[in-house]
Design a protein that fits this description.
The chain has one domain. By secondary structure, the chain is an alpha+beta fold. The protein contains four helices and four strands; from the N terminus they run H-H-E-E-H-H-E-E. Strands 2-1-3-4 form a four-stranded mixed β-sheet.
């Protein structure tokens, strides 16, 4: 039950994050669609394939905002920051589209293939 409440709160925080999708969204979205950037198991974006310094900076900026949101939620819920990130990742990994990259806890970058279900780890269920 605690995990379900945390998951719902993390999802709400990510959806309501103004600015995250505004500043670098188009470049990061294109990089995500091209498989250069992907979602990670810990709730953060990662650069899977060599990206430009500007792209890396944009990913870092998004991750800084995510960390701030995770820290705020962790403080309000009295749970570890890492738990909030991993819980948010359960939602974020579910948004990985066909052809996009993602990394699970083994830090291996994978590509979601056509016909393959969204990469949601067992601990998310």
């Amino acid at each position: 039950m605690k995990r379900a409440l945390l998951l719902a709160a993390a999802a709400a925080v990510l959806i309501a994050a103004p600015g995250q999708a505004e500043t670098a969204a188009s470049a990061v979205a294109r990089a995500r669609a091209a498989g250069i950037v992907g979602e990670r198991y810990d709730g953060y974006l990662g650069v899977a394939i060599d990206g430009s310094p500007l792209l890396r900076q944009q990913v870092q900026a998004i991750n800084i905002r995510r960390r701030a949101l995770f820290a705020d939620l962790a403080g309000r819920r009295g749970v570890p920051l890492q738990e909030v990130g991993i819980t948010a990742a359960c939602q974020l990994l579910g948004t990985v589209g066909v052809g996009e990259r993602y990394a699970l806890s083994d830090n291996v970058w994978r590509v979601r293939r056509a016909g393959q279900a969204a990469p949601v780890p067992d601990y998310c269920r």
